Amino acid sequence: xxxxxxxxxxxxxxxxxxxxxxxxxxxxxxxxxxxxxxxxxxxxxxxxxxxxxxxxxxxxxxxxxxxxxxxxxxxxxxxxxxxxxxxxxxxxxxxxxxxxxxxxxxxxxxxxxxxxxxxxxxxxxxxxxxxxxxxxxxxxxxxxxxxxxxxxxxxxxxxxxxxx
Amino acid sequence: xxxxxxxxxxxxxxxxxxxxxxxxxxxxxxxxxxxxxxxxxxxxxxxxxxxxxxxxxxxxxxxxxxxxxxxxxxxxxxxxxxxxxxxxxxxxxxxxxxxxxxxxxxxxxxxxxxxxxxxxxxxxxxxxxxxxxxxxxxxxxxxxxxxxxxxxxxxxxxxxxxxxxxxxxxxxxxxxxxxxxxxxxxxxxxxxxxxxxxxxxxxxxxxxxxxxxxxxxxxxxxxxxxxxxxxxxxxxxxxxxxxxxxxxxxxxxxxxxxxxxxxxxxxxxxxxxxxxxxxxxxxxxxxxxxxxxxxxxxxxxxxxxxxxxxxxxxxxxxxxxxxxxxxxxxxxxxxxxxxxxxxxxxxxxxxxxxxxxxxxxxxxxxxxxxxxxxxxxxxxxxxxxxxxxxxxxxxxxxxxxxxxxxxxxxxxxxxxxxxxxxxxxxxxxxxxxxxxxxxxxxxxxxxxxxxxxx
Lengths: 164, 454
Prior knowledge:
- The complex is a heterodimer.
- By secondary structure, chain A is an alpha+beta fold.
- Chain A has helices at about 5-20, 25-35, 45-55, 70-85, 100-120, 145-150; strands spanning about 55-60, 85-95, 130-135, 155-160.
- A four-stranded mixed sheet of chain A has the order 1-4-2-3.
- In chain A, helix 5 links the parallel strand 2 (about 85-95) and strand 3.
- The relative contact order of chain A is 0.18.
- Chain B has two domains: about 5-175, Rossmann fold, CATH 3.40.50; about 185-450, Neuraminidase.
- Chain B has helices spanning about 15-20, 70-85, 160-175, and strands at about 5, 30-35, 55, 90, 120-130, 135-140, 145-155, 185-195, 200-205, 215, 220-230, 235-240, 245-250, 255-260, 265-270, 280-285, 290-295, 300-305, 310-315, 320-325, 335-340, 340-345, 355-360, 365-375, 375-380, 390-395, 400-405, 410-415, 425-430, 435-440, 445-450.
- In chain B, the strands form seven sheets. Chain B has a seven-stranded mixed sheet with strand order 1-2-7-6-5-3-4, covered by helices on one side. Chain B has a four-stranded antiparallel sheet with strand order 10-9-8-31, with no helix packed on it. A four-stranded antiparallel sheet of chain B has the order 11-12-13-14, with no helix packed on it.
- Helices cover about 10% and strands about 40% of the residues of chain B.
- The longest helix of chain B has 17 residues, at about 160-175.
- In chain B, about 50% of the residues are buried.
- Chain B is elongated and about 70 Å long.
- The chains are: A alpha+beta, B mainly beta.
- At the A-B interface, helix 5 and strand 3 of A face strand 11 and strand 23 of B.
């Protein structure tokens, strides 16, 4: 589906808002609550990565192109990951529910791959990361309109156990 | 009257052959056909949409003691439900019957049935044999000509009584429509439970009418897109068991599971070839998915597509010569047809919107698909040359068609929106009429219709 530029900007703005404020996004809110529970997330912790760096980037409809906002987030991720080299991690790719099952699995893989390639281009070692697609199987927001779909079209960088 | 007696194995004839006489599902049903000589006159035309259902009278079958009993009533009720759900028949309310029981032995008194406008009458009996089996016999009558259209007798183990009823319904459907019936079939699907963001997905199998539901996996891992083997009691599906999506074969009788291949990246969207000896699927490489064919005997893997795009959802033509699949190589998700050995592919969809999940009809004449356009998801069919696109049903979200073995009915899933919503199974005729909900205990998606069992 091709979007007119005006709509694309709306999506980008919504995605950015979700990134910055975690508005209405279960995963983000959880991360914030966890961070609050231990006071300030200690530098180099998984909470630090989720809360202060941002563990996810968002995509427009049927696209795996990294938006400027996504690149900014991934730049921060790369810097952090390069600083804390003890982490291996998984890049998860996700799609919203507005696609067919098989296609969305491949689209999620394509999104994870786009994020992975970008992190590699910023100096993160390829052997620290793997990718996986969840297609439309693991939404974070479960309403059936654009506000949720915007949050579900994402790639999430998930830190594995430290020190591996 | 000509009496024809034949003894055959009804059940999984083709599967049994392959399994070397396995007794796993050995439902040995002996059939005795009692065929009238006269030419039939009653005929149901099912090629038109919105056909007027044919009024049919199905009095309760007679039990062994001469009156109706639980088993005989159950058999006639299952037959009645099958025929009603097909949309082609209108079973008459038994409350209107002048004669509640009709023995299958003699000629009925048609004067009791013509005033009800019954076009066809089914008379039957179910009894126990001395060796503990059940024997079911029935005759199908054309009420207006007074002629017998068919009559058969089945022997089976008592636990298979529902299959006996489905087989009788299949015989009636075929005799009156000229098309093979599809009632003695099963559905494998994905049972969905739990929170929408953390759905538990289990493979499940049930009869086509929702009875005899059984779970094939325990929900510990995500499972998607099960597909039946045309030959064996086996399904192939994609599962996220370990670190990556992989394609499995699962024997639905023994529960034995086998990985089709250990691929370094995601393997998904599998489907059997018509001869059951190959599985086509997508393998992910970086941002691209390509279609591969795996020979199950030699384990030889053949790459069929070579494009920097998403190529997935492959489905063979029934003659095994061609494959229809979806690809976004042209910029958006569309349907393509290629040779089963790969090579150039021809795009067949050019309408507005995106097309996915193509499934070639068992009759070969059309391909069913999911179409996304204007924020709606519809199920439709199109000829393999790209002509004659037709939408059968549309709405917020319809997806994943599968064909009844006779190619006249499609099943699919429909997602009901809302925080507590979820997918449910539905069926629709090839004509676009007769939408029916298929009962499942939980949410359900990704249905796959079995081949004919008998």
